Amino acid sequence: MSLAPRAVLVHRTTEYEELVARHGTHGQAAFFLASRGRDIGEVAERHERTRRALAEVTSAIPLTWRQARLERADLDRFLFAPEDVVIVVGQDGLVANAAKYLSGQPVLGIDTEPGRNPGVLVRHRPRDTAELLAVAGASVDELTMVEAVADDTQRLVALNEIYLGAAGHQTARYRLGLEGDGGVVEAQASSGVLVGTGTGATGWLRSVWQERGGALRLPAPTENRLLWFVREAWPSPATGTSLTAGELPAPARLRLTVESERLIAFGDGMESDAVELTWGQTVEVGVCRERLRLVG
Question: Which helix (H) or strand (E) holds 204?
Fold first, then answer.
């Protein structure tokens, strides 16, 4: 007998909850915000909208389904199952945070603050939950993801982008080359390397792309193609700047060999969940075989 689906609600602690946890009481949190020219009323109202959205989504889950509720900080410790339907209640970035831990489960993005969030990934309203769950998995967009695989088998997956560089904004030193590009490799010193997807083209990747004049065509979210950029490459007698941007279609790989004591790779801004790399290690970055199956 097959298991009934499990609805996994993913959310994050609200700003109001964080403030009260930090300052102890509502009044002390209000005083803290007032001293900085802010009104706690607006923060509390956003908190209430989020709570109401979570309650409405929860009530729309069929009674025969199992349920689990998951805070963002616990994503890396949660075991997702094949029969799960993931309901992300919050901001676009929360969908990206969850994506790296999934393996084909359909994801339904619920926007708690329409007009404040872009709604690229949280495309639906709480009132639509019941109707969407009835057909979850039947109509999805399969969004391209990016992966980094180190020579010691460490692996990192991201929906928007992967950053490789030094922690603490120090100079990253490495050798960079494209797989199958005639063996051309360049020693570089830079602020790091950014490799992004079409979904990431609405965020950090786009800002770097604009700074470079937009010469490369941005990929679509479902396109098997990435863009990569070297940030602030430094020319010197020992380091070059000829390989600083390009396209990365599947199955090509960008290869980086570490020439620093420690570099890190992290995805979608989650530096706390980084892959650590040391001198001499090699990491390859390219299109991931897995896709994020986002309910349209």
Answer: helix 204-211
Single out the residue of 284, 114, 286, 146 nearest to residue 221, CA to CA.
Answer: 146
Cβ(188)–Cβ(241) below 8 Å: yes
* Strand spans (E) along 50-208: 66-71, 84-90, 106-111, 140-150, 155-158, 161-165, 172-178, 185-190, 193-196
pLDDT digits over 183-229, tens only?
789 999 999 999 999 999 988 999 999 999 888 999 999 999 999 99
pLDDT(1) > 60? no
The mean of the pLDDT values for the chain is: 93
* Amino acid letter for position 216: L
Q: State how far the Cα of 235 lies from the Cα of 177, in Å rounded to an integer.
A: 17
- Helical axes 26-34 vs 40-60, angle rounded to 10°: 130
Query: In degrees rounded to 5, what are phi and psi of residue 207?
Result: -65, -40
